[in-house]
Amino acid sequence: ENMLARYAEKYDGNPNVSVIDVRSIGVWGEGHMGDSGVTATREAIKAHIDMYPKYFKKTPIVLQDDTPGFNDWAGAYAAALGYGMRDDSLPGDDNNTMWWSPNDYAEAEPFWRNAPVVLETFHMWEAYPRGEWISGETFLESMETWHASYLSIHHHARPFALAFPEFMERANRRLGYRLTPLEIGWVEHTAARGRVNMTFKWQNGGTAPFYKGGYPAVTLRDKDGGIMGVFVDTAFNLRDLEVGPPDAIPSVTRQFDLRLPNVLPGGEYDLYLSVGDIDGTPRVQMPIADTQPADRRYHIGKLNVKGDYDAKLLRVDGAGEVVTAVLEISGHTEIPVTNRPVLEFYNNDAPKFGDQENWLVGFDANAFESDWNAGKRAELNENGVTTVTMKVRIGRHHYGKTYKMNFGMEGNDEEIIQGDQGRYTAVGLLRVSETGEISLAGEE
Q1: Predicted structure pTM score
Q2: What are phi and psi of 78, to 5 degrees?
Q3: Is the torsion defined by CA of 63, 66, 68, 69 positive or negative?
Q4: Beta-bridge mates of residue 273
Q5: DSSP state of 102
């Protein structure tokens, strides 16, 4: 028990450890007494079964089915404590029943719904030369019926895998859990601050439950790959997915709404699906990609978010120290009374600030004059389009530079208006010559 306590300090919950075997009972730790001449008392067996969950609180524990009293009382007792089970040396085909009988299937029933089942192949150095392991069909049937989570090869693993590639392929496609979104649906176009209704049809295509559990999450990335939002379906734990035979695997259809935050700008986003922690951290690989992504986020498509407005520069004129810009504003949602148009100028020739191009170095003031009024707002909201004329002063310190012109609709924080490119929409580049002449250098 002292050894077990120290062992648990190091390995309980260790992500590199899948299960802990009760290996302190019987010859080879398989539970049976073999030819030892020793008889294990019920009290001794119970003491060992009680010890493991006392110290291992996170990592699943499995008990050998050869443990004395397993079918009479020990198995049910261990299962009630949350144990899984293990059975060693199962045959590959029906021509060898020396170590196995169909009645053994009933042994796994109390265990597999709550904890892993581990199965080991027969002694390959004996079975294969005698023709007792041909295709492994019986073992695969056992794996299905016992809802196994792990397969242990009773020999050198690499030559076994090379000798039986079809067996390995079939086992790997079913063993344990296999989370698969069979269908994913959503409307690819939505408005800023809207809801995106997503439909998922989930299936656990494996033999065993997803014991650790986890939650589906959808990640939005912008055109540069930056994460703009992570949305977790916290009400749906994939541990609850039922398992079934290969020809009758159950599935669950789930509706999940992405509620886009107010600060998410309009634009095109890439959608990624993942399964993991309740905070959205991806943990699980899924069989839905030829190449597994390193971050375990799987690209599933795109989402186009339409901003509340768009702006296009119609013309720009310079007279003296005044720049006059005429813009066409297209509205997609109603512009509230609290919002007004702004036109800002940023020095396009400014050096990089870290990795940020053209950081905020601009005119000392925004547009000082505009013909925006209640009539323009009404025209925009009723017809979906209007024009706005805005004026900005320039001075000698602006000569010889090129400026990026950004248009926005500023308002109170409760009615943040998003442009199709974000909070501000780039409408063009303004060049101020060395002598103060104004011209368009191009559009973004």
Answers
A1: 0.84
A2: -65, -40
A3: positive
A4: 218, 298
A5: G
